[in-house]
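Please check this chain.
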Amino acid sequence: MITLDGSYGEGGGQMLRSALALSMWTGQAFTMHHIRANRGKKGLLRQHLTAVKAAQQICDAQVTGAELNSQHLVFIPNSIKHGNYKFEIGTAGSATLVLQTILPALIKAQGKSTVSISGGTHNQSAPPADFLQYAFLPLLAKMGVQAELTIRKHGFYPAGGGEIVVKIQPCPQLQPLHLTQRGNNKSSYAESWLASLPAHIAERELATVREKMGWSEEQTHIRSVRALGHGNVLLLFVEDEHVTNVFSGFGEFGVSAEKIATNTCKEAHLLMSSEATVDEYLADQLLLPMALAGTGSFSTTHLSSHCQSNMAVIQQFLSVNFQHHQLASGSIHIDISC
């Protein structure tokens, strides 16, 4: 039984999600204390509980502590089962983070699976579904994974009501991935999505993007979508030869469209002006699959506490080394090896 302290480092939900994913993959049981101890609302919220119950169902695990607000969990996995699954968060909690938890196990399963997850597809505290579609899953494809994500319904905070559907083929062995450079730029563009909000919000966001990024009218697009509630997300896509990075900003009450766009552009500029291959959020997503493959490497804009906490959890389950050093440009290069 591996014992984990959920208050370590950044002390958030990522530690629990990684532990669940690794427990299913390795068959190693774990117990976690002080779950999400460094968050305003401690313990299991609805999306974390859904992730636990999804993992429990997929590997027929014995679980203690799977209830709302619980800060202690015992998880004893069994064999992974492929199949058709449907999970409902019941709030605007992130459907993408639930998927992050169960995807490695279903990649390792003996047959193909289809997963439907209902909840939030676009909220500020998690990668939007488009990030997985265009940034993360294409890199997994380079590692041999066949997984196709469809946004069936958009769900924004606070109403939720969105749904993603993912079809996953089994992958006998993950292939190593080394992202040494981004390569030449193939395409860069921005999309502002609106649900039940006036068009001028998107127009102002995209005008700011054109100003800050130097992009043309043809590179900026307004999209409308029906959703359970209202919502707005600004997405910047930077598609390079070897990797696509997706940057997102979410509309908030009391925050101007110009500020949302300016902050999103700053994140994109930080990567584009560096030698880094991926931004800090994609870096965090890549750690676990690269560790499961046994080796991998990439560079990122900086090493976040979120990323370091994730490394610590992974090393509790796998005999893997993370080595990192700063490049002359200031970017951080990370090597993963067994």
Q: What stands out?
A: The radius of gyration is 19 Å. The domain at 185-272 is CATH 3.30.360.20 (Dihydrodipicolinate Reductase; domain 2). Helices lie at 13-26, 46-59, 95-108, 129-142, 199-213, 257-272, 280-293, 305-317.
